[in-house]
Amino acid sequence: MAQINQQELENLRHLIGAHETGAQKLESYAQQCTDPEFQQMFQQSANSARQTKQKLMQFLS
Q1: What whole-number distance in Å separates Cα of residue 8 and Cα of residue 18?
Q2: I need a surface site. Which of 11, 22, 28, 58 has the fewest CB within 10 A?
């Protein structure tokens, strides 16, 4: 894999952090929901954010 420069590294760190924060918020929303349909939607979105975070982290190795 090609080397990344300092700016790209900082951008990756920012994106990874944003996806983790988003996932945590979405999981919190899911836990607070009483409607099962919304609960499932929030949980699926949280899972998607975590998957994207994992894909972004692959650029760091």
Answers
A1: 15
A2: 58
